[in-house]
Amino acid sequence: MRTVAARTAGTEPVRSVGDSARRAFLAILWRDLYVTGKEFWVLLVQVALTPLFMLFIFAKVLVEQGSVSAAYGHNLLLPGIIALSAFLTSLQSVAFPLVMEFGWTKEIEDRLLAPLPTDLVAVEKLLMATMRGLIAAMLMYPIGALVLGSAPWHPDRIPLLLLALLLGAWVGAGIGITIGTLVPPARISLMFGLILTPLMFTGATQYAWPLLDTMRWFQVVTAFNPLTYCAEAVRAAMVPTVPHIRPWISIVALVASAALFTATGVLSFRKRAQS
Amino acid sequence: MSGTSGVDDAPAVEVVDLVKRYPKREDNAVDGLSFTVRPGEVFGLLGPNGAGKSTTVGILTTRLPATSGAARLSGIDLLRDPVSARARLAVVAQRPNLDRSLTPRQNLTFHAAYHGVGRADRNERAAALLEQFGLADQADAKVDWYSGGMAQRLMIARSLIHEPDVLFLDEPTTGLDPQARLFVWDRIGELRDRGVTILLTTHDMNEAADLCDRVGIVDHGKLLALDTPEALTRGIRAQAVLDLSVTPAAQEHLATLLSDLGAVEGVERVEQPAASPAAAGAQDQGPAAGDLPATVQIRLYLSADPALVLPAVVGLLSGRSAALTNVRIGTGSLEDVFIDLTGRGLR
Ligand SMILES: Nc1ncnc2c1ncn2[C@@H]1O[C@H](COP(=O)(O)OP(=O)(O)OP(=O)(O)O)[C@@H](O)[C@H]1O
Ligand SMILES: [Mg+2]
Question: Which residues of B touch A19 (CB under 8 A)?
């Protein structure tokens, strides 16, 4: 029998599980940062184009034509669109790649076999997606201002704005991971129609939730979409004069949704990783 | 050796009554498998399609949960402490799973980073491995541009960069051309010399016979046999064979020649290997249709020592002016053992 002693790499320091998990987590995070950075314009095109066109048509073209008042763009649509970018960017930027990585390309296997708990790989995905959503929203603000000519600005309310966007992006990330690990690759286009479209239009991004009281049933439906609370909180921060759900209610609802979808995301990621 | 919870003189891999049933499936994909791989050993899992080889590798590399049973890697409980185990193992999956968002070189360096290899170290190792695996020229191309064989080589290089104690290779040479296969075999040989434990799965009998210290034959998730390749072939078909390439005299009748050969003492059975390429080629060169082919392949199954039978065979052939162009003395091959154990049915 041969001996095992003759290993070349006797230089590696003895390492604890926690230490190796921490290093692996950072390396995986760095991988995603690197890949996102390399293809950031792809991400921008992917996610910013829809909101941008919406803003352009509804807050510019229709205003020019006199069909919509100028206040609509500033007061309702722009805050809604910024919330939507945070939510949708984080959701899509994690859901689509996950479907592919788990399905056809199996690319994720190498990271799943890194020396860290599988749940932490999910947490890393969540973190990255949240970051991407936040960046997209922060880009949408100045871009929206350019499209509209100006944008509302309340420096004293920036903490609320950031908190709302952070939570909105986080919820989007949780939903994205859940969808991305539950939907089989062949169903990816179905997911778009069946999940994303309703989410986009029942999220109070194009209208104010309190003003829906004339359409009670739709108001109730909308109350179940976490995006509603993000849009409402962003409105509370950007245009406090427009009727909005009280910020603390929105924040509580967002935190609860974030907790819920983080749990479903991590659980379904774990399940998908082990099959 | 590095690591925290492993026991150093423990078996490299230890599998006890391992069972895996996929959800919504009636049968167990792995059905009570038990075996042990010694440190430094090259261990082969041989089995037909769907035997449960990849499933076993999946469990042993912490990718799949087991339904029941136990599995340990260098004494680490794979099912309870997968994170420690991952630091010590590496796997080359059956299907390509390279990171397509990264270049080939980055596939190596990032993988090393996941495993905590420092920056200078990992760049150096990546360059050396790319060189060694003949990929240095294309190290910064797109992974998508790689051919199947190149991707396979890159995956093997990647598995080595964090210097694992136990390496799992799931059909490492399937789909490779002969050069690439020999290349991979050489690398496996080097790793074994360095003391890396290797568990590989294969359908290739030569691969199993040449590379593996011991081979386990599995089917339907069960271990059917486990031994050295020599012992397996010796044990199950003790029969020796003589493979002859013969050019008979022009006026010879093949049928009589064959029956006369069959009558030689110590010859049990005469067969013409059906799909032997030499025979097929020889037919094209035959002088005219209906005539004897120039060279025929004949296999004699022996009941006695080949060394005793051969002189009689040679004598018989030369007595009839038949030229003997090639002789191979063979014992039953691993393939015979394999078919014997797993049957001829298609999976
Ligand atoms: N994800 C899965 N879900 C359900 N059944 C599966 C799954 N993967 C494999 N199986 C089944 O488990 C059994 C063993 O499959 P496995 O892939 O382990 O075989 P294998 O020995 O690697 O075969 P091959 O030589 O073709 O690679 C097969 O019957 C297969 O159909
Ligand atoms: Mg397989």
Answer: 116
User: For the segment A48-57, what is each residue's pLDDT rounded down to a tens digit?
Assistant: 788 888 888 9
Q: Where are the beta strands (DSSP E) in chain B?
A: 13-20, 30-37, 42-46, 68-73, 76-77, 89-92, 166-170, 197-202, 214-219, 222-227, 240-247, 267-271, 296-302, 323-331
Report whether residue B29 contacts ligand 1, using a CB cutoff of 6 Å.
yes
Ligand 1 centre to CA of B208 (Å) is: 20
User: Which residue pairs, CB below 8 angstroms and at least 24 apart, start in A155-158?
Assistant: A157/A236, A157/A237, A157/A238, A157/A240, A158/A237
- The closest residue, in CA terms, to atom 29 on ligand 1 is B50
Q: How confident is the model at residue B236 (pLDDT cuts 50, 70, 90)?
A: low
**pLDDT at position B34 over 50:** yes
Residue A11 lies in a domain: no
The enclosing domain of B225 has a CATH number of: 3.40.50.300
Between A and B, how many residue pairs show a Cβ–Cβ distance under 8 A?
116
Dihedral sign for Cα B79, B83, B87, B93, please: positive
Pairing of strands B13-20, B89-92: unpaired
Structure confidence at residue A14 (pLDDT): 55
- The pLDDT tens digits of the residues spanning B148-171 come to 999 999 999 999 999 999 999 999
A1 found inside a domain: no
Q: What is the pLDDT of residues B265-321, one digit of tens each?
A: 888 888 886 544 444 444 444 444 445 557 888 888 888 888 888 898 999 888 888
Residues B104 and B161 occupy one common structural domain = yes
Contacts 24+ apart (CB under 8 A), A59-63: A59/A147, A59/A148, A60/A147, A60/A148
pLDDT tens readout for residues B310-335? 898 999 888 888 888 888 887 666 77
| Distance between Cα B155 and ligand 1 center (Å) | 21
- Shortest-distance atom of ligand 1 to CA B24: 4
Q: What is the pLDDT of residue A5?
A: 39
Nearest CA to ligand 1 atom 24: B49
Please tell me the distance between residue B56's alpha carbon and the centre of ligand 1 in angstroms.
9
Number of domains in chain A: 1
Assign residue B286 the CATH number of its domain: 3.30.70.1340
Tell me the ligand closest to B58's alpha carbon: 1
Give the model's pLDDT for residue A15.
67
In Å, how far is B194's CA from the nearest CA of chain A? Answer: 6
Residues B221 and B175 in one domain: yes
Ligand nearest to the CA of B203: 1
Q: Which atom of ligand 1 is nearest to the CA of B30?
A: 14
Q: Best of B20, B21, B22, B217 to mutate for ligand 1, by most ligand atoms within 8 A of CB?
A: B22
Out of B62, B116, B197, the one facing A24 most closely (by C-beta) is B116
Q: How many distinct structural domains can be found in chain B? A: 2
How confident is the model over A123-139, as pLDDT tens digits? 999 999 999 999 999 98
ipTM value: 0.87
